[in-house]
Amino acid sequence: MKRVLLATPTTPYPLQPWHDTPTDIMRQRFFKGQGIFTFEAHMHLIGPFIIAQNISAPATVLDHPTVENWIEEIKKGYDIVGISALTPSFEGVMEMCRVVRKYSPKSEIVLGGFLAQSVGAYYPQEEWKKLADHLVLGDGIRWFRERLGDDVKAPVRQHYLPRCAMGSPWWIDRWPPGDTTAMIAALGCNRGCDFCTTTTLFGGQRHTMVSPQELKNEIKMWQNRLPGTNIIIYEEDQDKNFINEVGRLLRADPEIDFSTFSITILISINTLSLYNDLDEMAHNNVKSMFIGLESKFAPDQGYGKRAGDAKQILHNLYARGIGTMIGWMAGFDFHTREILEEDFQYLLECEPTAAQLTRVTPYPGTPLYKRLKEEGRVKPFKWEDVSFYGGGMIHKHLYEHEIMEFIRQGDERLLQTWGPTLLRFLKVHFNGYERYRKYDDKHFRQIAEFHRQKAFQGYVMIPAMERFAPNGRVRKMVKEMEQRWKQHFGEPSSFMRTQAKYTEMKAAYAFLKDKVDPVNRHIRIPPAKRYYFFGKDIKDDGSLPYAKEYLNEDPRYIRDMKIQDAEMALLGVAHAATQVLDYPESKLHETVSDLRRDASSILKSLADHLRQPRVDVPAMLSEAGAGLTALLAKAVEAGEDPENEIDFSVQNAKEKLAVLLDYYAQGLEGGNGLKELLTHPAVAGFAKDILEAVTAVV
Length: 698
Ligand code: SF4
Fold this sequence. Notes:
single chain; alpha/beta; pyruvate-formate lyase- activating enzyme; seven-stranded mixed sheet; 50% helix; binds iron/sulfur cluster; rSAM_sf; metal-binding
């Protein structure tokens, strides 16, 4: 039996043009440039996970390994080593190949994904053969099955691919847990867009991976194991019959509940224009979609996928509770300065819920690359720049920096015009709720319930969005959203108000912190994991096809989780207290009145001191300190008193705070805490600035 190792590239990944990591597509693309409302997320390359569960040999998968993890694993001497990667990781992957040649020279090296296509198109075979034995262009499962003598026609499993996080603002959660998984229905399509890497990889054809029934079974498996897991179905231009059939199968299953999860698809305007009424699409539980709009002028330029009235279709989607992630590109040959601006105005009118503004990029191997190469319009490039924002293209009418700045400003203009994406999604959720809540059909009502919950939960962000609105226009939109919320749900409960206030405070902290220590200075490296897939022993009964382990400890993750636990526990106390206070006869009301009285006395005492002709500062501070200590003691005592019915939450909060303090205490004992503080980039940078300023003055 051959031993197989599959892997993603090693970390840290090459930084993308906006100083962020390619594994965070929300920060890097869809929520880019939205200040404190920019989301932080994470994603996985799923190719190795799919291959590993569709071959008879037990396989190891390394997800986000460090170089050290990689060397250690390679030394185990695998027969076949496969690496799947995106093109910007080229240099890192070449280094991985060198490691294999050095420590396990008998291993066969197989490269897959977009990187393989770029390597094959850019280098002659004798060149790339020095570091790799095979390039897999197209279906990696088939390649491995053939190589291992397995049945190439066997059904394709996609059990429990690692969950990605669609994320949240970093100051809410820097380490959002995975909530969304991907499934591949088909790859490539026959529309032949000249810039498209996927369709090049699959020879300009739609390559089907699974049937609607198989896909439905995978969705069901997830909903049984981790209910609420959202699904992204990858099919480059979603086939109408396929998604309608998936929807029909899901609706036919009485255990599937559309109020608990959502489906995201990738689709073109042209395919959407085949629907007479987009209710038909919403009925499949599709609640968001990625659409490559590309340009207002794309239809006139031969991009068939864009045929149809994009603006009208998009607004019809929003009216049905379907949010969009719109792909738009700057840098087509027809983009003069005037046309580029007109193009962008059209995008603004389309009101994308989220937008991916990128540059036209000639990936090696695509027809666009070949044409530009012939025209002498590809200048030398760094592989890390062959991403969504570069690739050495020499533009006809615009400077490179000009396009990049247009994109940066474009994100800003979207924010200034429609507010943060959070607000735009909230609007879409209200639309979905209002439209479907009175429908007779059970599934439409479940869809309405999903939107109702999202809209309801959205309240906690409203005060923060209002305070940090980029301008008056957006502030007005936020206020209108608050009114819409109240029309449906009435006045928010005291706990919701507390939670919203707390969120607003956190937003203020994030806003200030971002000024002196922008979040993208601290690149988050995804954790390295090792998965052992069970080969021919994998079952289709809902059990996991692998066992997994974390390879490294990330001290920042450990610290952040302890802080988050303590925060959540304190919020739990606030929640419990506000619930108890909803009962007029609760004993806690007396305590609250007492605490108010005591706090008022402290302030009065301070005021009395200040009125003296000469303030006795030590006495004033000592009285205030004693007053505050007594106040805190009374509050804690009341919290611990079982009669007040919040003692459980208080004990929990005390424990979580104690754990956090222990953590810092250990850091100080080892000398790490102070060292970390003094060497923190923000502190060091601030100290340096001060020194420089002082030196300049002196
Ligand atoms: S429609 Fe999408 S998948 Fe198809 S060729 Fe165009 S960009 Fe590629």
